[in-house]
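B., you asked whether I could sanity-check this one before it goes into the benchmark set. Here's the sequence:
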Amino acid sequence: MTAIDRLVRKEVALGAIREMQPPEQYIGLQIAPFLDVASDDVIFDYIKGGLQDGLAPARAEDAEAELAQKDQLLYGAGRAALIDWSLKTKYTASDVTRYREDLAIQEQLQGAGVQLNLNYNGRAAAEFQAKLARDDRNRKRRLDNRIEWLITQGFATGQIAYNDGKIKFSVNYGRPGDQQDIAPDVLWEATNKATMDPIGDIKAALDLIENRTGVRPSRGVLSRKVVERMWLADRFLAAMGMPVIPGGTTNVPLDPNYILQGYSPEAALRIVEQATGVSFTIYDGFYQTRPLGSATYTNNRFIADDKIILYPGEGQLGEIDDTEIGFAKTLTSPHPEGNWTPGFYEWEDESKDPWLHVRGSGVKAFPVFPYLQYTAVLDVF
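And here's what the prediction gave me:
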């Protein structure tokens, strides 16, 4: 069926844009970039169940809306050629026919030199096009959120545990237990600013990895809250020759915001980078969820705000890894609605019901982390 034939009696197609670009505001695809593969089998456990808001749901190539059940048990094993994360939007007969009729009115008036004084003239088409654009952006945002969630889950926790109520599976990437959520000797709290040692704590984690693997991580990810906590350490002020005055009934605590020009949490982070040899990225990405029927949204962070993740640069694995995957990749395989090309795809469908139009977006993708033994996660407060 051609594009012109796609919508209601050979009139007009809605015209989905095929090419969707990866998000630039998220960090996941910088850590685990897309890698095109012909196919890749992922084996996982699953259970039938509900749906999650804010993120695209899972879907398999053998099922319309969820992974196909492979045996008669409620609990079982599932298999898909990469997991297909997919969303669709349905438009009813009234949506489509009003759009079509409004376009017909505009076409009949073109060149007639007649002004039709109707409040709705042209409005239905414009509103419907705006709705299509909003729905397209919403689906794409949820797909972006899902890809980011997958990557950051594996990167920050060492595993991906997925359960949307319909489908359940888990993948463990093998980060050693004592390299996950390492607690410093002194937590990074305001009450501990006289004794906390951010540089020493980070160096201890780097030494642990280097002594075990021979690789010393050179990159890190942390939140702005972590940076502001490390900035509290009295060691920074002492190193700069500033007196540390304790608070009390007569003494006013020293506040570097009011004394040191140019001194800030970011400046403290630069000191930490120079001392540890790690280049840090500040990241506070999140997605939103809203319970059904509620107007209240909840912000869900992709990476917890009390973590520091240390990992090697790509060049540091040169003698260890000789594959295309390297430290990490997000494998993506072809999909028929993307003209058998990997990455994001979109589709339109009205063949099941001539008065119902469906637009959808999806991506077949799953991250792979072969070398999490060269990483560490600190839980600092």
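One thing to flag: The chain has one domain: 22-40+85-110+117-155+175-381. Otherwise nothing jumped out at me.
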